């Protein structure tokens, strides 16, 4: 690049300098070229930093600092898997270069945020906010604000946005906790997005997920037994209730941490979802969405995540059972293993093809790399109060 | 670096100072329990109320947000939860005195 500016001016000088420049550049680029396909980001919640990790060699490569309050932070990746966008609880979006291990840009966009998503064309970042409630759209390159969608715009007070997920066609789906709605946002013209609202979808939706084919959006409900399903192929049919009444009048148990729905919870013909207020994983047929089974587990499930191959489903738990992880065998729908890997296991992330799963143990300040074939610990790595672990393979997946 | 011990030390100072200013102040629990409770507050309450307690799905627990609210009813909310909302009952994990101490800490801004 520098060479071309020289060339436009004094040619002789440029000719002399060019080989020197090449030498200098080669000297700087002493790190060999590498891809980003096996890189990932680990959130260090209290110290406002992220680690960049390599999941082929199970090692940490670098730490990037200065990202602010990262409790409950989540991450999406640019389409080329070069950049991670980190959504902090303090409402900031940080764009991190995985190869240069550098914070490229940070914008404070709300006072209290919970996460975000990237559009199907990779150009728009959407951030979902609690306070002020709403969704903001940003240019993925430079994080310039493109537009804001207020969830107070239609009256009834401002509502917290939960479960924001990308859908095909540069659309985003999300739910509103306070007003019990699902909104479908068409961001194909990101400066003037269009909203389609679905009201009365159920009480207190607390999170949502999009299926990995981008067809369905499901919101979990805190206020009633059941989940709300939106089928984007049949948007006019509206939102319907699935797994209604799974608690069946049983006393609801206290929930010390809200479950997270986002993840790979569809395994083969079934969807595995956390019950709320019952120590169970719900199993639904992923065509009819009828409940086919429940799998009793040891506590309130938080993440229910299928291995990429779908053969097993891993579950972690809310306080006070957050030191344990259970593994469910999909064909038999039985818990086949209970692990006690460390204190406060907050997150689980599979390597792209599922040979290993990484767990974060916040209170033991470590990451564990577990072999999914043997269910034994391959390696532990130090980390500062780690929470979320996000691998760049998410860049090419919908709903992640 | 873990700022835990330093932070904990600061809380205790704030608490001590606060307990001089206020009548009928809840006595701080003995260590290591006090430290455990602060961890609980920021980590486990923080899961809903935000790591810095500025709010999340749960309402903010800052002194401003709690100003003018009767301590008794906040203590009752912590111990019994608030039915119909995600606020769970913490009685299995906290004594009455510990909940009082947490409310005092929250209302006086000792918790960051």
TrEMBL record, chain A:
SUPFAM superfamilies: C-terminal (heme d1) domain of cytochrome cd1-nitrite reductase (SSF51004). InterPro entries: Cyt_cd1_C_sf, Haem_d1_sf, Host-pathogen_enzymatic-act. Gene3D superfamilies: C-terminal (heme d1) domain of cytochrome cd1-nitrite reductase. The keyword Glycoprotein does not apply. Pfam families: Cytochrom_D1 (PF02239). It comes from the Bacteria. Residues 1-29 form the signal peptide. Keywords: Signal. CDD domains: 8prop_hemeD1_NirF. This is Protein nirF. It comes from Aquitalea aquatica. The lineage of its organism: Bacteria, Pseudomonadati, Pseudomonadota, Betaproteobacteria, Neisseriales.
Automatic annotation (TrEMBL), chain B:
Keywords: Heme, Iron, Metal-binding, Signal. It comes from the Bacteria. This is Cytochrome c. InterPro entries: Cyt_c-like_dom, Cyt_c-like_dom_sf. The keyword 4Fe-4S does not apply. One of its GO terms (molecular function) is electron transfer activity. Residues 30-110 form the Cytochrome c domain. Residues 1-26 form the signal peptide. The keyword Iron applies. Transmembrane segments: none annotated.
């Amino acid at each position: 690049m520098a060479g071309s500016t020289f060339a436009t001016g004094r040619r002789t000088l440029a000719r002399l300098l060019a080989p020197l420049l090449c030498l200098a550049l080669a000297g700087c680029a002493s790190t060999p070229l590498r891809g980003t396909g096996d890189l990932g980001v680990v959130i260090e919640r209290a110290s406002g930093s992220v680690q960049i990790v390599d999941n082929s060699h199970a090692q940490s490569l670098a730490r990037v600092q200065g990202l602010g309050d990262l409790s409950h932070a989540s991450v999406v990746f640019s389409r080329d898997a070069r950049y991670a966008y980190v959504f902090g609880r303090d409402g900031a979006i940080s764009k991190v270069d995985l190869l240069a291990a550098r914070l490229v840009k940070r914008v404070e966009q709300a006072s209290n945020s919970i996460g975000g998503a990237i559009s199907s064309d990779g150009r728009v970042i959407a951030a979902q906010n609690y306070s002020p409630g709403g969704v903001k759209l940003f240019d993925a390159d430079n994080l310039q604000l493109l537009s804001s969608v207020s969830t107070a715009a239609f009256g009834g007070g401002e509502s917290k946005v939960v479960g924001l997920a990308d859908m095909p066609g540069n659309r985003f789906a999300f739910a509103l906790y306070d007003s019990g709605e699902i909104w479908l946002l068409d961001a194909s013209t990101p400066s003037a997005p269009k909203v389609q609202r679905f009201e009365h979808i159920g009480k207190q939706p607390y999170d949502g997920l999009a299926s990995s084919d981008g067809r369905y959006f499901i919101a979990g409900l805190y206020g009633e037994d059941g989940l709300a399903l939106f089928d984007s192929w049949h948007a006019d049919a509206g939102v319907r209730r699935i797994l209604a009444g799974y608690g069946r009048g049983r006393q609801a148990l206290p929930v010390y941490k809200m479950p997270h729905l986002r993840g790979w919870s569809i395994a083969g013909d079934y969807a595995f979802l956390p019950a709320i207020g019952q120590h169970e994983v719900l199993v639904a047929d992923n065509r009819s969405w009828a409940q086919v089974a429940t799998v009793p587990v040891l506590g309130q499930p938080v993440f229910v995540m299928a291995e990429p191959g779908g053969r097993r489903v891993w579950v972690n738990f809310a306080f006070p059972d957050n030191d344990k992880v259970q593994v469910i065998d999909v064909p038999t729908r039985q818990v086949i293993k209970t692990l006690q890997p460390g204190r406060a296991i907050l997150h689980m992330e599979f390597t792209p093809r599922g040979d290993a799963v990484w767990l974060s143990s916040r209170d033991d300040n470590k990451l564990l790399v577990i072999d999914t074939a043997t269910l034994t610990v391959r390696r532990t790595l130090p980390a500062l109060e780690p929470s979320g672990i996000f691998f760049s393979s998410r860049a090419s997946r919908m709903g992640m | 670096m873990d700022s835990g011990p330093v932070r904990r030390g600061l809380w205790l100072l704030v608490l001590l100072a606060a307990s001089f200013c206020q009548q009928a102040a809840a006595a701080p629990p003995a260590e290591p329990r006090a430290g455990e409770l602060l961890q609980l507050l920021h980590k486990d309450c923080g899961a809903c109320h935000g790591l810095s307690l500025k709010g999340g799905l749960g309402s903010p627990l800052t002194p401003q947000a709690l100003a003018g609210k009767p301590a008794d009813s906040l203590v009752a909310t912590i111990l019994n939860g608030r039915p119909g909302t995600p606020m769970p009952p913490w009685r299995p994990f906290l004594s009455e005195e510990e909940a009082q101490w947490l409310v005092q800490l929250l209302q006086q801004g000792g918790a960051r």
